[in-house]
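Moderator note: this is an archived Q&A kept for reference. The question asked for a predicted structure of one protein chain; the sequence and the answer are reproduced below.
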Amino acid sequence: MAPAPLAAWPWERMGNYKYLLYAPLVLEATWGRRQDDGLTHNICLQILLLTAARLGIYQAWQMLSRMLPLIAHLQIRPQGLSYRQVDREYHCDNPHLLQALLLYAGHKWLGLFEQASLWNARGLLITLLLHMGPAELLYYCLHRALHTKFFFTNYHKLHHESLTPEPSTAGSSTFLEQLGVAMVMGLVVVGSTLLGGSSLVNLYLYLLFFDFLRAYGHSSIEIMPLSVIRSVPLLRYILYTPSYHTLHHESQDSNFCLFMPLYDYLGNTLNPETEAFHAQIRHDSISERVPDFVFLLHAVDFTSALHVHFVFRAYTSHPYKANIFLLPWLPVAILVGSAMWLWGTVFKGWNYYLRYYHHQIWVVPRFGFMYFLPFAHRNINFLIEKAILKADRIGVKVFSLAALNKNEALNGGGKLFVMKHPNLRVRVCHGNTLTAAVIIREIPEHVTEVFLTGSTSKLGRAIALYLCRKGIRVLMLTTSRKRFEVIAAEAPSDVRGNLVQVTKHQAGKNCTTWILGKWLHYSEQMLAPPGTHFHQFVVPPVIQFRKDCSYGKLAAMRLPDDVRGLACCEYTLDRNVVHACHAGGVVHLLEGWTHHEVGALDVDRIDLVWKAALKHGLSPA
């Protein structure tokens, strides 16, 4: 079915090449600089700077709306985000491109801003009155028209598919709708110019404040205290709130105003639940929502730190991959990461968290390399312990440790905390039992021999013992005869011969199944025969040097289809997929197990945990 007229954007088929439409402005701005026109007279440069500032406002609000340490208790609908919404709103900057082109056209064809002063106090008052009067009324009428059957079905429905608005939702609409918004804004900008109030400062203030309020209303965090509204009742009709706008998205038959609910009141379209809903959200914010499950993760490196879900929403909705567009932001990540490291090391102070669907993910401010610095271990454990004690205090049921947070050399797989605090009500879980189960099930049934590195680690030991029981010969790479003998002694006597100690990577040159628990360099990978598959449980994953071999991802499980609230990928994993240790903690919670899963793995529980995961709808990734 063909789209309705003016529903599609003119540059829709261009994809990201649409940014080439800024080229005339860039060229003219550059030429103006060469002609030494001065900043205030270089209108194209001003339009570009203004557009960048406007996009920056949306990005700042977007980050704030997902910065859960600050706003988790203020969220209006915390479970509504999805990958589909992020994909649908990918081109949410289309309105800014349109308005930049319209400003450029107005400048070229109508001579707008040619005589604009830098500052005009009278013009600021004119701009304010034009917006509060005709502009707000015009938008109210246009918005109500968009909710009639024809216009809603063919145009406005797209915007309302986002039940939990985010700042980016404001730009998710059809071309016709944004022409209407541009007309409302143009009424103010052109009207102010015709009435002698044109100035660059006024233009900046109006458009930036317009975007600020649009992003604020779509943020889905109710930051407006109820006491302020009740102290100044008139404010309720002059300035809308995120809860006011959320009700519009849910009911679709009320609260149509742009920023000023006054016109809803006059038009008898003000939702009667507006004040009560606002009060409910603010009342619920008094007591923090307590999750049943916490997963404590960490950044791996500075670029992957930019993959956290509150930075770039579209980027984090796909598996992590180093990208050239991250380069300008890398110094920021290094600066922030260093500040976090300094704060945690010197002042021993900070941990923060991110929320996923029905549980929370807390993040320790550490990067991967820091876990391999012996002098940093004490402070890392201090932060992990602090997070566990907080979880215990507020009533969390299961606390799961990710990757390096349960490193054997760091805290014995979490055993340190359980021994230090024997009366913990929260169950500490490293989740490695399910990780072992996933790796084992990845191995084809016909395999009779595997080469295992990291063989004396928690996971390596459990995998070796399990496979040897199944009659598979395990070449265990370790230079420690004592540690090998301790593990071999745990194997039943009739299969103990399946465990073979090797001390060099050359021992795996005839084995096509390698299981990596330690990092493998280029020269070591080259020792594997062609056709080898590298299974791995090493963080970060090894670099894929071999074109004639295949590489498995980190052990992971796919979540059930009915899971809600996911909008970002977990490191390099696909959508709706989490690391097996993460899934292991969830299974621990869902099964109601009351033991701590710390320290050495119980090999006899591997099959039990695997069956429990499948029972709850998780599946191999």
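Archived answer notes: The radius of gyration is 29 Å.
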